[in-house]
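Reopening: structure tokens for the heme C complex, inputs below.
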Amino acid sequence: MWSARNIVAITAAFVAAFGVSARAYTAELNTANLVNNPQKAALNWMMNCQGCHGVDAQGSPNGAPPMPGVVGKFLQVDGGREYLARVPGVAISPISDDELADLLNWMLLRFACDDLPTNFKPYGAAEVSALRADVLITQAMRERESLLAILSTSDVKRKTSVKNTNAKAPSQYCGGAHGS
Ligand code: HEC
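Re-run output (same inputs, fresh job):
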């Protein structure tokens, strides 16, 4: 049997092991009002996503696609916002709707700040709850390809090639996390 004491000790060990890098992540980001608990979000990324996606969301060979320069662009196209919450890794992750919404917002700020639309609205728990129930079990890759195909058309390109032009956004959201 696991005593409450053991569980506390194990939790403390996890915090000791991961807490430092969780803080390193959050220090770089000014998460403004978009992420309720950045430290928890960073920890959730490490525990539930990083194994496939990589520490900097750089992806893995024949596995998760790289996020920087790509993931934020999905928000520019119809169905993209939904797609990000419906992919299996997101939808079936073992965390609550609240934490998952926070994690998605954190992930977008962390890895896609430059591509966020100026009117980016953070994911909410109720929205995520509905979307994750509609998980893309077998169609994720097909959905991804069709969204990317729409994004590659000249019309969308014109819109998305303009980086986040809201003068306040880079400092407000990105906090210099990407250097430039
Ligand atoms: C078992 C490996 C795995 C895990 C764990 C995982 N993912 Fe993924 N993720 C993928 C793969 C593979 C894709 C590409 C779409 C597909 O086939 O599901 C993907 C796609 C995505 C996408 C869409 C980006 C794109 O370019 O298509 C997002 C956003 C995402 N994952 C976020 C997360 C988050 C957040 C977590 C943790 C809660 C997570 N993933 C956990 C493998 C994983």
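Confidence is low (pLDDT under 50) at residues 23-28, 161-171, 176-180. The domain at 4-174 is CATH 1.10.760.10 (Cytochrome Bc1 Complex; Chain D, domain 2). Marking as resolved unless the reporter disagrees.
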